[in-house]
Amino acid sequence: MKLKKGSPLERIYNGVWRENPTFVLMLGMCATLAVTTSAVNAIAMGLSTAAVLIFSNLIISALRKLIPDGVRMPAYIVIVATLVTVVEFLMHAFLTDLYDALGIYLPLIVVNCIILGRAEAYASKNPVLSSVFDGLGMGLGFTASLTIIGLVREFIGSGTLFGFTVLGDWFTPVSIFVMAPGAFFVLAIIAAVRNVIVRPHVRENAINEISCGGNCRYCSGTLCAENHRRLREDETSASAPKATEKEAKS
After folding, report:
1. What are phi and psi of 66, to 5 degrees?
2. What is the mean pLDDT of residues 196-219?
3. Which pTM does this prediction carry?
4. CA dist 12 to 6, 136, 157, 214, 241, Å?
5. What is the DSSP letter of 220?
């Protein structure tokens, strides 16, 4: 899927699929593995993180030229901590049950690698609109990932979906899926299925084609730019002696 780089759709597609923070970048694993015992908890955590991502990207991008390089990380943390506090207070006031269910993992959004990573890698270097859509894409990708994991774990581990019983008394829940090992199993299986779906099938010389499946040779995502540069340098140095030998024979 080819979209104009930096466009709103490209930023959303990037966060939801191409550089999904959970299944591709493997960020935010603490919350991912801990709160996905049910789909409701997963959605709540995902949307909370998405809200913080969007507004932190917006503020950091708007202030990117005013924040000195020497204090940019402390400044990012202060901005993110303020937004997380607002979300925490709102959830405590209006969604008490979810607030209690998420527990310590809600304030830990402050140090979530996804938020600080997007602030440093994208929002601090790009305009406000692109940064907002980057946060939206990453937030939606994180929410979708947590929801999928939560649905699978809740269905197999409890026989319910969103708290409603969907399987009869004949079903014996596999309780390991609502425990810590189940989180690892489900995450690994879904990530493996995704990698199989997007595994690149391109020619050797199609190095710049956007087709990322965990193989940096064929990926033009932002995380693979350095790998591309090194790969080209290696290919250039490897092909140079061959050209010299051919010239000598001729």
Report:
1. -100, -20
2. 51
3. 0.78
4. 10, 6, 32, 19, 44
5. -
Rounded to a whole number, what is the largest CA-CA distance in the chain? 82
Looking at the structure, do residues 57 and 110 belong to the same domain, yes or no?
A: yes
- Domain assignment present for residue 50? The answer is yes
Distance between CA atoms of residues 223 and 3, nearest Å: 17
Segments forming the whole domain that contains residue 135: 8-165+178-198
Q: How much is the mean pLDDT over the chain? A: 84
φ, ψ at 172 (rounded to 5°):
-100, 110
Contacts of 161 (CB under 8 A, 6+ apart): 39, 151, 154, 155
CA dist., res. 69 & res. 137, Å (int): 26
With respect to residue 72, please indicate whether it lies within any of the assigned structural domains: yes
**Any idea what the Cα angle at residue 43 is, between residues 58 and 170, rounded to 5°?**
170
Query: Does 123 share its domain with 234?
Result: no
As a whole number of angstroms, the distance between CA 61 and CA 105 comes to 26
pLDDT tens digits along 137-178: 999 999 999 999 999 999 999 999 998 888 878 889 999 999
Count structural domains, the chain. 2
- Tell me 68's DSSP state: -
End-to-end CA distance of the chain: give it in Å, rounded: 45
Q: How many other CB atoms are there within 10 angstroms of residue 85's CB atom?
A: 12
**Is a pLDDT exceeding 50 seen at residue 134?**
yes
Kindly state the tokens that stand for 218. 């064929």
Same domain, 72 and 116: yes
Helical ranges in 21-173 per DSSP H: 29-35, 39-62, 72-94, 96-102, 113-118, 128-158
